[in-house]
Amino acid sequence: MNVSTDGWKNFGKHGAHLDPGNVHGKIALGRALEDALERMIIEGGIKSPVTTRRGLLARMRYLTTTTGGPAALTDAGITAVPRTVRAWTHGTQQPRPHNLEAIDTAYWNLRAHNVLANPGGFKQHLNNNGHGTRVEIHPVNQDLVDQPRRRDNLRLRTIQVRYVWDEAVDAMVDGDEAKLEEIWDDVIADLDSDWGAYTYVSHIGLGA
Question: Where are the domains of the chain?
Answer without folding.
Answer: 7-40+122-206, 45-118
